[in-house]
Amino acid sequence: MHVALHCGACGLEHAIDQPQNLCTSCQKPLLAKYDLDAIKSRFTPDVVRRRSLRSMWRFWDVMPVDDPQEAVSLGEGLTPLLRCQRRGPFADFENLFIKDESFNPTGSFKARGMSAAVTRAAALGIKHVALPSAGNAAGAAVSYAARAGLRTSLFVPDDTPPANIIECDVTRADVYLVNGLISDCGKLVREFRTQFGWFDLSTLKEPFRVEGKKTMGYELAFDLADAFGSSDLQLPDVILYPTGGGTGLIGMWKAFDEMQHLGWIGSERPRMVAVQAEGCAPIVRAFQQGERFAKLFENAATVASGLRVPAAVGDFLMLDAIRASHGTALTVSDEALLDGVRDLASDQGVYACPEGGAVWKAARQLLESGWIKPEERVVLFNTGSGLKYNHLFPPTRCKRIDHRNPQFEHQATT
Ligand SMILES: Cc1ncc(COP(=O)(O)O)c(C=O)c1O
Ligand SMILES: [Zn+2]
């Protein structure tokens, strides 16, 4: 493996062959650094295209394995990039796409991160992992840990979506419902990990979840090239990403740097847009106030549970990427993001998670303000399936009908 671990803030190198969490000097995230010059001649877009491996592990040369056979995989990645139909409120966008991460095992993009992190944890001989989660990461963690034969202890807020709690419970993992936020869950993991021998799998507090999520950036370049019939890899003008801990945004930004170093793309970059909920927007606030580190967002509340992250250890990495890309950060209200889910379902056939509804509504806001131009290539990340959030969508339009005496209120389609 041509990889080393360096602190994302102070640069200090850490041993790769033993379990690592945050930088031992400054307590910031560690990032994997590959010897890209050593693999450049054999790792090319054409080589990737020819591989038959049907998962994100087709990018294994820039992931923490020597051989893709080592991967703990359930078939994650290779999600579709869907071109939006120009219908209803979507009609004004000429080149709008959805990268639909709901196709992943366990129904969300968290599968990518967990596949990579559990692969590395298992390779290092770890037997028991623990993590706080907003819900989807928990579902992914228990599944990949089960696949690898590891034990999992999970800490989730007690109002986490029922679907997430159930998917964890059925795997016989140790699930703790905490009367607090994800930050309180994280504190419990920190406090008890030594006593119980847990490896802390919190996002960005171990170095490999981001390595899994960065594959979204690699894939996107191939997807977009295919969409435009180009043999050269292509990046969009704008990426909208629903931001909690920010691992996906940081990962994609890292992927673009690696791809440039490999000679796959030039110095062009998409404008990165972080979308948060009005009720929990630490990154948007820090962006607007010109700060590099975000303050804890007090009384965080939103139905988009993946966005209910009041403090993120990778805040500076996100804010650096947003600024370097000439991107922006904005909020969407809960009412609007739920409406966004209905727009995506009714006009695009995609039953998105509320976080996906949020990025769509944010794209509309940015088009209306002129920040996005109608002809620009824009990618929305739908990070998970709406099916995990059925509790937010009690049916409002269904009508009862008597099959013996059917009465219809609507008109015939002519
Ligand atoms: C569906 C969904 N979207 C977005 C996020 C935020 O992801 P990230 O931590 O990469 O910012 C989460 C996190 O839980 C999520 O579950
Ligand atoms: Zn450091």
> What integer is the average pLDDT?
97
Determine Rg (CA atoms, Å): 21 Å
Secondary-structure content class:
alpha/beta
Determine the CATH topology of the domain at 81-107 and 209-392: Rossmann fold
Q: What best-fitting shape do the alpha-carbon axes yield?
A: globular
- Biggest pleated sheet: 6 strands, mixed
Side-by-side strand order of the widest sheet: 4-5-13-10-11-12
Helix-residue proportion? 25-40%
Q: Per DSSP, what share of the residues sits in E-state strands of 2 or more residues?
A: 15-25%
For this entry, give a set of tags.
13 strands, six-stranded mixed sheet, alpha/beta, binds pyridoxal-5'-phosphate, 15% strand, single chain, 414 residues
